Every structure is written in C-alpha cells, then in structure tokens.
Amino acid sequence: TEVNREFATRAPAPLSAITTTILCFGCCAWRFPSLESIDQVATPDIFARRLFPGLLSLEALIAIRFFFFVGISFVSIQVAFFTDGWLLRTNYLPSSKLRKSTIRMSGIRTQFPYTSVTWNLLGI
Fold first, then answer.
1. In 3D, which of 84, 85, 74, 82 has the Cα closest to residue 112?
2. Entry pTM
3. Of 62, 78, 83, 93, which sits with the fewest C-beta atoms within 10 Å of its C-beta?
4. CA-CA distance, 41 to 26, in Å (whole number)?
5. Across residues 52-69, what is the average pLDDT?
C-alpha cells in the first residue's frame, strides 16, 4: 500500500476532543457563580488573608507579592521587547499530514506559549 504524503497546512480538531470539551463544559457550566455571588465573596479580605498571621505581617505579604510582580513583569518585558526571541520547531509524527515548520517567536509572540501565560498569571 502506498502512503499518501500530501501535506496539510492545518487540520481540524479530532471529534473526540471536541466532544470531550463540550461535555466537560456542559457538566461544569452549572457551577459557574453568578455576579451577585462573586460580589459577596470577592472582598479585599480574601486577597489579604494570611495563612500564618503570626509569622507574616500584612505589609510583608504586600511587599512579597509586589516584588514577585516586579520580577515577573521585568522578565516578561525583557523577553518580549529586548531579545531576539527564539525559533520554535514543530514536531509531528511521520504519518501526520501537517508540515514541519519553524516559527519565529519574537516580540509579543513570546508571551503566547502556555508556560509564558502561566508565568504572567503568577505575577498578577
């Protein structure tokens, strides 16, 4: 049998992945809070709560969170605007119809990978 080596530039998501996503969303959607309940729960006390109030003052907690924010923001800005970025090589199985390519990750694109997004969320 001859293998079809026609390359595709994009491919649709598998039906199983789409179905699973819809089912998970459907099962979890009823647990989403209403705006009224968010207003009752999201108070300044929630963000200033300390696990060990005897070991850490509120001012120290604010300072630690601020320094994390500054450090993470500095790294993200440095990578996005002051470096050349990097080359991302796509890897697919040999039987895939998707083409192997190289993507230039520079500028704001450096903030798109999952690890960059989670890193930035850590700094918020």
1. 85
2. 0.60
3. 93
4. 24
5. 88
